[in-house]
Design goal:
Elements lengths: L2 E5 L2 E5 L4 H6 L4 H10 L5 H11 L2 E7 L2 E10 L6 E8 L7 H18 L2 E7 L3 H9 L3 E9 L2 E9 L2
Length: about 160
Amino acid sequence: MHIFYQKNKLKLRRAYGEDCPRLAARLRPEDRVELAAAFLGQTAESLLQGFLAQSTSAFVLEYAAEPIAMFGLAPDTLLGRRACVWLLTGRGVERVAKTFLWLARRWLSTALTQYEELYNFADERYGAALRFIRRLGGKFDGRYCRRGCVKFLHFTFRRK
């Protein structure tokens, strides 16, 4: 098992397939709503498995041996300069909010040494996610897509 950070009850490690059902069962309601709007008819577990399979790197953050977040990078092309960045959170992530933000900043900084641009879309109704993206330095460029009647806002992180 590859552990990248461990302190007290918190552990950041490489993600594996068996983490997907564990986190899917613990997803925050807001994350579950966002997934349901973006990917109609698909389960959270199957979506996590797909995100993991498409990613060149993916990680799990655990608190007291329970997954509270999973995130990763899925590049557009093998040798490309852009990658789709994704993150899903579970119950309990708010218990370690400051450390989670600190770890996310460090990971994002490392990811931007590999890719010039990271991007994705976020549900405009998910205020906490939009604030988190902004706090990490993400920029919303005004582009969006619609899934049904839900608007998803395009955001990017760029290398400085």
